[in-house]
Amino acid sequence: MAEKVLMKGNEAIAEAAIRSGCRHYLGYPITPQTEIAAYMAKRMPKINGVFLQAESEISAINMVYGVAATGKRVMTSSSSPGISLKQEGISYIAGSDVPALIVNVQRGGPGLGGIQPSQSDYFQATKGGGHGDYHLIVLTPASVQEMADLTSHAFDLADKYRMPVMLLADGTIGQMMEPVELPEEKTSTVEKPWALTGTKMQREHNIINSLYLNTELLEKTNFERFERYKQIEENEVMYESFMMEDAEICVVSFGITARVSKNAIIEARRQGIKVGLIRPITVWPFPKQPILEAADKVKAFISVEMSMGQMLEDIKLACECKKPVHLCNRVGGMIPSPEQVLAKIVEVEGGKN
User: Fold this and answer.
1) CA dihedral 107, 108, 109, 113 (to 10 degrees)
2) Are 15 and 69 in the same domain?
3) Closest CA relative to residue 147, chosen from 187, 188, 108, 179
4) Which pTM was predicted?
5) Whether the Cβ atoms of residue 263 and residue 314 lie closer than 8 Å to each other
6) CB contact burial 81-96 (16+ within 10 A = b; e otherwise)
7) Which one, of 327, 318, 320, 183, lies nearest residue 237 by Cα?
8) Do 90 and 205 share a structural domain?
9) In terms of Cα–Cα distance, which of 180, 123, 110, 177 is closest to 151?
10) What is the pLDDT of residues 81-129, one digit of tens each?
């Protein structure tokens, strides 16, 4: 059995990225994810890698675009306001079909907000964020172990589908410390004949670009890209099902709020309430099918989240409005307590909503 080490969530992301073959980190510090940049600043020079603190978030994401075009594994990280500044560059990366990892350790907003944890960047991450028709694969860790595991998986998905992947964490998971088993060292095994590696006069020139002045070609490219997205929706959905076998109420939650919800569910079960949890691990693609299947068995859903109900909409769409969907939330950096979630479960069980 591999040895476990005690690490912060942010540090686990950084070390997992290095072990996944990432040798280029380009970013800008912002709380609560600065430990990622600090860790990379120490480690990259020792492994012949590149750490560069750019002059701004906008510069950082465009540097990521440049490295991604060469086929190298590359990442950036930031928190909510910084991710907003990166949106144009993320759209360019998506429009150029190159792989990259973007980490968002969310904080409360809007605006500068606060430095406490939040999940209010859900719309931005899952509905695009930048301009144009595109998607990111969005992974949501609920533990320090998943911070490491999903970072490694994110690089593989980015290479497999030639697209940017976002690790959507929150400040609590980023700052908390837990034992973690780090992934084995690996490099990408995906062939990248499209990459800008220098022709050596042995092949045609590759061009990485998101500009299409021919409207028919741009339309064709967008349709082809969404065919790839369809494959992702069919093959890459990840979720956890907890006590759903006989559940009459289904809680849907991700990240730190899912951990809180589990405690509430266990207590509710002690009180005789049949409740379970579906925890999306990918929020794009969203686990529509298990929620639709649950809608035929449960009498209600409860979305537990640290936003004003952003995931609520995806749950309603997934269950096709077959059952009511209730909201249990805190915002502005506040985390729902197990007692709050339990009270909502009891309320829905009693049919008061």
Assistant:
1) -100
2) yes
3) 179
4) 0.96
5) no
6) bbbbbbbebbbbbbbb
7) 318
8) yes
9) 180
10) 999 999 999 999 999 999 999 999 999 999 999 999 999 999 999 998 9
90 and 201 assigned to the same domain: yes
Domain that holds residue 66: 5-235
CA dihedral 263, 350, 280, 322 (to 10 degrees): 170
* Cβ neighbours of 265 (radius 10 Å): 26
Whether 299 and 318 share a structural domain: yes
E strand or H helix that includes residue 343: helix 338-349
How are beta strands 249-252 and 300-305 bridged, if at all?
A: parallel
Pick from 266, 334, 272, 330: which is nearest to 303 by CA? 330
Extract the tokens encoding 142.
Answer: 């609920």
- Say yes or no: 147 and 33 in one domain: yes
| Contact by Cβ (8 Å): 346, 123 | no
For 245, counting Cβ atoms within 10 Å of its Cβ (0-12 exposed, 13-18 middle, 19+ buried), the class is exposed
Domain count, the chain: 2
Measured between alpha carbons, how far is residue 213 from residues 92, 210, 219 in Å? 15, 10, 11
Whether a cis peptide bond, with omega within 30° of 0, leads into 29 is no
Q: What is the torsional sign of CA 122, 80, 42, 256?
A: negative
Sequence-ordered list of residues with C-beta below 8 angstroms from that of 344, at least 6 positions apart, any chain: 302, 304, 326, 328
Q: How far apart are CA 263 and CA 128, in angstroms?
A: 33
> What's the CATH number where 291 sits?
3.40.50.920
The pLDDT tens digits for 162-221 are 999 999 999 999 999 999 999 989 888 899 999 999 888 888 899 999 999 999 999 999
**How far lies 258's CA from each of 92, 137, 239, in Å?**
33, 20, 12
Q: Which of 205, 235, 265 is the last residue of a domain?
A: 235
